[in-house]
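User: Hi! Is it possible to get a structure for several chains at once, not just one? Here's what I have:
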Amino acid sequence: MSNIFYKEAVRDALREEMRRDERVFLLGLDIGRFGGTYKATDGLVDEFGEERVRDTPLSEAAIAGAAVGSAMTGLRPVAEIMYIDFTTIAMDQIVNQAAKLRYMSGGQAHIPVVFRTQEGAGRSSAAQHAQSLEAWFAHIPGLKVALPSTPFDAKGLLKTAVRDDGPVMFIEHKLLYNSRGEVPEQEYLIPFGQANICREGSDVTVVALSRMVLRALEAAAELEREGISVEVIDPRTVAPLDIETIVKSVEKTGRLVVAHEAYERCGMGAEIATQVMERGLYFLEKPVRRVCGRNVPVPFAPVMENYVIPGAAEIVKAVKELL
Amino acid sequence: MSNIFYKEAVRDALREEMRRDERVFLLGLDIGRFGGTYKATDGLVDEFGEERVRDTPLSEAAIAGAAVGSAMTGLRPVAEIMYIDFTTIAMDQIVNQAAKLRYMSGGQAHIPVVFRTQEGAGRSSAAQHAQSLEAWFAHIPGLKVALPSTPFDAKGLLKTAVRDDGPVMFIEHKLLYNSRGEVPEQEYLIPFGQANICREGSDVTVVALSRMVLRALEAAAELEREGISVEVIDPRTVAPLDIETIVKSVEKTGRLVVAHEAYERCGMGAEIATQVMERGLYFLEKPVRRVCGRNVPVPFAPVMENYVIPGAAEIVKAVKELL
Amino acid sequence: MAGQPVCAAARELSAPTPDLMRSIHLTMVRIRRFEERAVELFMAQELPGFLHSCLGQEAVPAGACAALRDTDYITSTHRGHGHVIAKGLRLDRMMAELYGRTTGYCKGKGGSMHIADFSKGILGANGIVGGGIPIAAGAALSAKMRQSGQVSVAFFGDGAASQGSFHESVNMAAVWALPAIFVCENNQYAVSTHGSRQRVIPDVAARAAGYGIPGVTVDGNDPLAVYAAMVEAVERARGGHGPSFVECRTYKWLGHYVGDPGKYRPAEEVAQWKAADPLPRYERELAARGVLSPEESELVHAQVAREIEEAVEFARLSPHPKPEDALEDVVA
Amino acid sequence: MAGQPVCAAARELSAPTPDLMRSIHLTMVRIRRFEERAVELFMAQELPGFLHSCLGQEAVPAGACAALRDTDYITSTHRGHGHVIAKGLRLDRMMAELYGRTTGYCKGKGGSMHIADFSKGILGANGIVGGGIPIAAGAALSAKMRQSGQVSVAFFGDGAASQGSFHESVNMAAVWALPAIFVCENNQYAVSTHGSRQRVIPDVAARAAGYGIPGVTVDGNDPLAVYAAMVEAVERARGGHGPSFVECRTYKWLGHYVGDPGKYRPAEEVAQWKAADPLPRYERELAARGVLSPEESELVHAQVAREIEEAVEFARLSPHPKPEDALEDVVA
Ligand SMILES: Cc1ncc(C[n+]2csc(CCOP(=O)(O)OP(=O)(O)O)c2C)c(N)n1
Ligand SMILES: Cc1ncc(C[n+]2csc(CCOP(=O)(O)OP(=O)(O)O)c2C)c(N)n1
Ligand SMILES: [Mg+2]
Ligand SMILES: [Mg+2]
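Assistant: Yes, the chains can be modeled jointly so their relative placement is included. Here is the combined structure:
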């Protein structure tokens, strides 16, 4: 085990996969010498050169399209879209091309592309640099969507993403890059569609995404002191979604809180709540509670930003209201 | 009352609003002489001229942006995006600009823009011309989203959209343009956020969107013959969503089916089901049933397309399973 | 402007061998007859969906693809039958796709707008205007990184040149000196929108200078002019000197889609272009060059006519997909 | 290339009045001092979020906006303080916005990247590179349709010229002959990416020809050269002759954002540009022209220094928003 930063975990995954398979390469804005906005690719250009760690012109649609085209012709690109807010410019290539070309071609196309990006609020970067849009991509058949919450998950999930033969949205969180965690020395992969029970508990189930997993664990620790036992589940990937693990937990607890930063309306929380209800309305003691980003753009001033993005306190409150 | 086509209702709404307010104008691909792909704007150029019924270059991002910019500076544009699948190219302007500029400017910006587009399958137009993406837009704070299912609604909702001082996604359905319906001679508007109880019933509530409302009414008629009483509700707008009317109905029936063409995963069905549960888990006799587009791209061949897009039969089946 | 003379000269210099001239002719006839038949079948409501015909534009794909190898890549458009036929597809499996049958190139999942055959370097027609251009750039990037010697061609229309994806892709290909060729089929309209309302400049090729790459405008109804321009561009690409822009002036005979009366186009304009039919024009040239006699040409037409009827038979007799087939091929 | 001489000439022809020359100077000083102070405050962690400084680029907004009326429109960028100061904003309310206070131009909802004042024609800085360009085109369309005589200016960087939105907007403005002016602040880098890796051609202005509009490249550190080019462009726009493209060569002293060491830029390069500081250079010219003496210039600096300190005071004393304020201003 070594204790590393989340950004190092991302970098190690990319380095290992690039060493293992020369078809893997990176493209994106300022990922080379500059090392990426959050320094996740720092130093990789020194080992792999500018061909395989490729700075691009400022053109997200072409970045995504070049990734799709090269993925269909024998390479395995990892395209970085600096902020998930900027996928709005590359949406046709991600949603109409990458996600559908295999299907439209009757299964001919292999499109092993990873779109690496990051989401989340908390840095006063305002409405165009702080969204969490995973639900958009989970809505689109043909895309897989991963949301690592720890260095361990970031490395194991990213290696799996790179080896996946279809398009993967790999969504990191801007406030996690400098978080630390234990990662094994020897190689490992984390399969998609297998949720992680981060903490076992018996009173209430909390399903959290991305950085909210950390908030959920804080809340669980606090609630434990009050004798309330919380089970915290991180789905790790929302497409595919490991609903079985979630349902099994709720069968035990009878109570569910879903927590994410994304806007509440039409967010993943609704999908998870609905799938749980479809499978087990009867064992739900109380309605599912959503602890999500408020349905407003993310404001600049910290006092307002903290208000619209939930934290451990809101989770604690929601859990108590379910008891 | 006059019996007119859906496409005429759209046209009449535009004509009336353009006559009423000279700031209202239209822009989009081939909306002038050509009259629009589905002929919704046919003839308007003759009355209002090429300045106010403005054909554009083939540039969706600029169409949306020009609409946003002109809306912020005293005009009231109605921008047509030919297929909702093509909003993927205009997403930044719709989601990061139109939806957020008012907020980011501290309430200064008035952005009375309507993005008219159409969605839906059923014409063997394959995966890039048959999506239903309303949930994407309902996810974004700052956008209103209307889905007219009849000529009456199309006219009344579009007039309201044009008079709204913020951005509205006005989503028509490509298979409804040639459907007919009764429309009053005198002027009327339909407020946003007020669902329409299309048919009263006591056993099961069916909430349907866009063209699925017609399928739901067919299903209700068929079920009535078997003595099953179905209440059919059309929310008309999904943002804002009139959840009260839906909840009131479910309090009565205890059973809910949600039907739409959009992909099931992360679709509006999940949001509606979740909000109903949040407000009334206890009076739900059975889990909410979703009758939605399957989680696959829309295939070309009719036999497959019909399989992935639900119809009245699937609604009938779902209703019976709830009893 | 934009190099017309250059190419007139090059046209002779790089004139193809008699065999190649004949195969270009065969390609044009195959496209012509396939499109004519497809239109008939569509009007007879045998084909689902909608259809964008390239009747009248046959010289562009025929001349362009004659300069390519089997292993080279192309991306195509909603009006893509000509491109994929020229790149070597079988008419029967194409027809089967138009019918939505399991024997079609996409097993009935794609239809007319999405025909693809990766074994032939065809990365897919595309329903999104401009959607195929970045993909072609990506294939060129792949060819360069794999040092495979392949080139990648993006076919697109004059309307597509107004899309941001066009700008971003051509610029990126130029910066990276990719083996890409951007072939603009300028048929002067995007649906009802004439080129003069699409841009101020007459020639789309004039934009090439803004990316620092060569751009030429050629007579798109002259397959040998198209071929000559492509030979230059392919050499440049394979030589590692980067992308080129080739604008081909042509015209589509029918409206935007089959069923569109195309009232927005002056009747005389349409008549003129039909009178200047590229196929007989090319046949006259081949006869004059002593490469293909009228009689031989007749044989080609007859042979292709048979091929078409066999293709229709094949398609009609092919099985429909099962409904549940719709659930396959979503994820790898 | 691209008209540098033309403008050198025009520079004299359209030389502004002494008063205007002085107000351009005042604007440059206000931008310079505001940015210097903002950087200090940011490093002292008094300001939340991040900051993109335009230190070194002051001549572009100062010269450009001097050619505009109060009622004309501009859209700006992530590096937008200069543009909005030049368009006439108060430094106190700007500073308050950087502090995220209710007295800021956006009530603390926008911050540094989104400063807007519709009463001054400022349609907003923008966090999306290229995002403001179509909006400026839309404002120009509105001005044209309302026959208001206003012009609309899109400020953007050299990197933004690689965005599809740039291409689509400039082309649309050209086709419709809109009263728009596209001002590219070419500071030669987009974050770490040098212009030579952003495009093949040296001058972005060379792209103007591809849209059929005039394009010039001017010395962006010479406010009078920028002003001259803008006067031409504004006349053209107000005269109904359509859009123009003005590229201004300049350089940002600091890295991409405050805190970015900017290692990707050669130290000598940075040193050279700092040595060629546009402010003293302009002050020397004004002195030579007898328009502003060194002493008078000193007074300006002193006066602005006071204005800045008052602005900081104002911001610091201004109230924070209430958390629930976040729920307002979402929909009309
Ligand atoms: C992004 C996008 N916008 C609009 C359309 C609808 N559409 C299909 S083809 C077409 C015109 C294309 O014109 P051009 O590129 O010149 O090709 P042509 O049809 O003339 O061959 C349009 C507007 C589309 N398919 N995709
Ligand atoms: C669409 C989009 N892509 C990427 C970014 C991140 N980003 C912010 S500024 C910038 C560089 C912009 O370069 P340029 O246009 O030259 O402006 P400059 O910073 O040099 O003033 C980048 C890549 C963004 N904000 N928006
Ligand atoms: Mg065309
Ligand atoms: Mg720059």
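The CA atoms of residues 289 and 318 of chain A lie 7 Å apart. Chain A has a mean pLDDT of 97.

User: Great, thank you!
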